[in-house]
Amino acid sequence: xxxxxxxxxxxxxxxxxxxxxxxxxxxxxxxxxxxxxxxxxxxxxxxxxxxxxxxxxxxxxxxxxxxxxxxxxxxxxxxxxxxxxxxxxxxxxxxxxxxxxxxxxxxxxxxxxxxxxxxxxxxxxxxxxxxxxxxxxxxxxxxxxxxxxxxxxxxxxxxxxxxxxxxxxxxxxxxxxxxxxxxxxxxxxxxxxxxxxxxxxxxxxxxxxxxxxxxxxxxxxxxxxxxxxxxxxxxxxxxxxxxxxxxxxxxxxxxxxxxxxxxxxxxxxxxxxxxxxxxxxxxxxxxxxxxxxxxxxxxxxxxxxxxxxxxxxxxxxxxxxxxxxxxxxxxxxxxxxxxxxxxxxxxxxxxxxxxxxxxx
Length: 360
Hints:
By secondary structure, the protein is an alpha+beta fold. The protein has helices spanning 2-11, 26-35, 55-59, 83-88, 101-115, 129-136, 154-169, 178-187, 200-203, 247-256, 262-272, 279-283, 299-307, 319-334, 339-357, and strands at 21-25, 62-63, 66-67, 70-82, 120-123, 172-175, 192-196, 213-216, 232-240.
């Protein structure tokens, strides 16, 4: 685990053991760069042109006004859906495109009644969908000053209400792990999935479902100013370590490859499905290919277009701790606990981690 190894090396004062370069998930980047800044090489004045990357991806690795990461891949959110299940209930993918969560739930209830299958699932231990919802409206529990606002957060409460309504109506099924999600997808017992675009690799595991899937954007929060149908979940960024033997050469490498070569993405994309945060790649037409599995839809071009509309929000250092705390809160709320009380407990839990008791 890269995080653990870097933390161990820095804590032991063994910076000379750091690799020249490494890759971190965006949700971990802030925690690592803020707690172990001495492990990172400052890229602010490097030859890498950060204006050529999507803003929300660049911000994920900025700390104290300085650039420490090179955007690699995105986790642009999509909703992938079984079109045959929609059609059985009298709908098409257009009926769940550019809609609010209220509208999505109404369609979902009909699909569940007709097919018996949920429209999406969510792991009980890490309800990441809450952060996805909030980012789609340009907000986060993590504030610009580094603090976290969970208790008395009206938007978060609205997201929880939507979450609970989907569970209560059967539109969303709570599962124990993502292994259950993959099993449900391959066996056809789940009608759709809302996640980062990387989930499409799992969606396409069942060859017999080819032509029965489509991809669209995610629902927006109703009645919220600035709400959009776009968000992000996951993605990663490269970093150059402070121990790099030739940091200038490493900078030139990234500037001429991930930060400067459309040809690289043209080579990498066909075998990986990588959606790059490098804007010229999205504008080059490399994603403009019909995908048979998705009924001829130009899925990856659509995702590249979605990526340019994702709101930028602070990720904060403690995304994992927030997700874990909210998993506990939602379980307790489902058992009858008071929402406000559970959000205060979650607030206290994350505050405890931020006080220095939960690093990495």
